[in-house]
Design brief:
7 helices; five-stranded antiparallel β-sheet; Protein Transport Mog1p, Chain A
Length: about 170
C-alpha cells in the first residue's frame, strides 16, 4: 500500500463529505515529509514549512511565518489504534452515513485505520500519532481550516490532513 493509495482514499472521503455537507469543499491528503533523524519531530515539521516560505509570503498576510510556526504544538494520541476513529469520524462522515443508511458494514474511518495498520505501517515497529495544534491553521498543503495529524516512525514522518473551505 502506498501514500498515494491512502491519499486517494482520503480524497474520496472528502468528496462524500462535499455531497453530504453543501457549501463546504475541501481536500484530505496523506503525504510524507523529509525526516532528519538527528532533529526533533517539531523541528523537522518547521523545516518543511520554512522550505515553502514563498507560499506563506504570498498568501499569509496576518502574521509572520516565524510567529505562525512558533505556535505549533504536538499532542500525542495515546493508543491511537483504538482512539483515532473517534477523532476523525466527523471528517469521514461516519455518523451522517449511519443516519442515512444505517450501520451497514464498516465506517469509512474504520477502513482507513485498517489500511494504515494492516497494510501501510505493517513493517514499522513503532508508529506514534500526534495531533498538530493549533487547529484550523492554513498551511501550504491544506485548506483554510482543518485538522492535521502527524505519524512518526523511526525513519519517516507523514502528515494526514483533513480539511474544508467554504
Amino acid at each position: 500500500m502506498t501514500e498515494e493509495y491512502i491519499s486517494g482514499y482520503l480524497e474520496a472521503i472528502s468528496r462524500v463529505k462535499d455531497i453530504l455537507t453543501p457549501y463546504l469543499g475541501g481536500t484530505n491528503q496523506f503525504f510524507s515529509i523529509p525526516k532528519d533523524v538527528n532533529k526533533s519531530l517539531i523541528l523537522n515539521i518547521e523545516n518543511y514549512i520554512f522550505a515553502h516560505k514563498s507560499w506563506y509570503d504570498k498568501y499569509n498576510t496576518h502574521e509572520t511565518l516565524e510567529s505562525k510556526v512558533n505556535k505549533i504544538k504536538l499532542v500525542e494520541i495515546v493508543n491511537w489504534q483504538e482512539n483515532f476513529e473517534d477523532l476523525i469520524s466527523e471528517w469521514t462522515c461516519d455518523e451522517i452515513l449511519i443516519e442515512i443508511r444505517g450501520k451497514n458494514g464498516y465506517a469509512l474511518s474504520e477502513y482507513l485505520i485498517d489500511f494504515l495498520l494492516k497494510y501501510f505501517f505493517i513493517s514499522k515497529n513503532e508508529v506514534t500519532l500526534y495531533k498538530m495544534l493549533p487547529v484550523g491553521e492554513h498551511w501550504h498543503w491544506g485548506d483554510m481550516m482543518g485538522d492535521e495529524y502527524i505519524f512518526e516512525t523511526e525513519t519517516d514522518i507523514y502528515i494526514m490532513h483533513f480539511g474544508e473551505s467554504t
